[in-house]
């Protein structure tokens, strides 16, 4: 019996998927590694066989991802990346499930996690969010011996094997640098920062993304642009389906014609943009984090000046791919963290968000 792709993978000390991709031209394999595979195959007189090209492992490997459900536009983009990666690895007998848990519902979170563990889940990705009982959730995974990674928000103190996400303080610094540069020639230099007080909704002391952003923003502004006055206003708006109030509008009215820039930190983009549109048009710089494709219009009309964008589609994609890499090892082990670098999106390059929403990988 001739040599098979599995034999080539074993002899070269690489994964079967990598060998299969090299011969079938699916997915990414470096040119150097392809050449190594082809040279060894020729040396061993490997003859491709139609059946062997579609033959994969006999057992299915199951992956689950867990996150909160709001803001919906952000997790929708995560889901797009997850789906693209899931399609790529499906031919190799991988199944991917993405659970979006209602806010503060640790009971449902733990129930779904336990059900997945009982079904025989092979690896998990989760977001370390202070809205849930994360110690109990991490405890379930560690007790069951399930390899897991964190994405979006890290838990370095846990047994996670990789983190896929952004440096949120860096996102705040990027917003500060943009506003600082934009206000350099302004006679008045005052910025309003809208932040959210979440102390009353925390379940655990998991990282606070919004606090990291504010810290990065203030640190850079005070050192690089000390002449800019920064006003921080806290709101108590709850991130809940259908919830509406006038807190953002009231803050904007309070500072109307008093500031030259506004920086929104929490994920209340829809309420913020709606409030802006109810006020008289002002020559004010506006910056916020992450948007869905429909908001490109607000960049192009200059209602919105800039978006600090962390590419959630890429985040979802690389999370699944990191789990695939871990499961392809004979024994799961840590792999390097994957940093999703922030991009500053302006009206001039607003097609970047549209392109991200139409983003597809060649399978």
UniProtKB/TrEMBL annotation:
Organism: Sphaerochaeta pleomorpha (strain ATCC BAA-1885 / DSM 22778 / Grapes)
Molecular function terms, GO-annotated: DNA-binding transcription factor activity; transcription cis-regulatory region binding
Superkingdom of the organism of origin: Bacteria
Keywords: DNA-binding, Transcription, Transcription regulation
InterPro entries from the UniProt entry: HTH_LacI, Lambda_DNA-bd_dom_sf, Peripla_BP_I, SBP_2_dom
Keyword Transcription regulation: yes
Name of the protein this chain belongs to: Transcriptional regulator
Domain HTH lacI-type: start-end pairs: 3-57
CDD domains attached to this UniProt entry: HTH_LacI
């Amino acid at each position: 019996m001739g040599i098979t792709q599995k034999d080539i993978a074993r002899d070269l000390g690489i994964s079967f998927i990598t060998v299969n991709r090299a011969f079938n031209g699916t997915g990414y394999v470096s040119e150097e590694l392809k050449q190594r595979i082809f040279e060894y195959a020729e040396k061993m007189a490997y003859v491709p066989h139609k059946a062997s090209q579609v033959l994969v492992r006999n057992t299915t490997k199951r992956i689950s991802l867990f996150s909160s459900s709001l803001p919906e536009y952000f997790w929708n983009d995560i889901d797009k990346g997850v789906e693209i990666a899931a399609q790529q690895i499906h031919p190799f007998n991988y199944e991917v499930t993405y659970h979006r848990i209602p806010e503060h519902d640790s009971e449902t979170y733990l129930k779904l996690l336990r059900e997945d563990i009982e079904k025989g889940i092979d690896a998990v990705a989760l977001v370390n969010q202070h809205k849930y009982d994360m110690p109990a959730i991490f405890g379930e995974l560690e007790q069951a011996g399930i390899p897991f990674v964190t994405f979006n928000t890290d838990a370095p103190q846990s047994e996670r094997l990789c983190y896929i996400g952004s440096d949120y303080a860096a996102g705040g610094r990027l917003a500060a640098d943009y506003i600082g540069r934009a206000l350099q020639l302004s006679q008045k230099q005052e910025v309003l920062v809208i932040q959210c007080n979440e102390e009353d909704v925390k379940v655990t002391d998991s990282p606070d993304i919004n606090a990291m952003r504010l810290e990065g923003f203030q640190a850079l502004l005070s050192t690089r642009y000390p002449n800019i006055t920064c006003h921080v206003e806290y709101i108590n708006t709850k991130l809940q389906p259908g919830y509406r109030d006038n807190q953002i509008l009231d803050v904007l009215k309070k500072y109307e014609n008093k500031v030259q820039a506004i920086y929104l930190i929490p994920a209340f983009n829809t309420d913020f943009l709606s409030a802006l549109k109810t006020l008289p048009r002002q020559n004010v710089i506006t910056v916020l984090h992450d948007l869905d494709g429909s908001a490109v219009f607000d960049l192009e009309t200059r209602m919105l000046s800039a978006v600090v964008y962390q590419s959630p589609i890429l985040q979802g994609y690389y999370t699944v791919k990191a789990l695939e890499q871990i499961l392809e090892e004979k024994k799961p082990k840590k792999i390097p963290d994957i940093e999703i670098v922030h991009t500053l999106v302006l009206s001039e390059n607003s097609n970047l968000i549209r392109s991200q929403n139409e983003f597809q990988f060649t399978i």
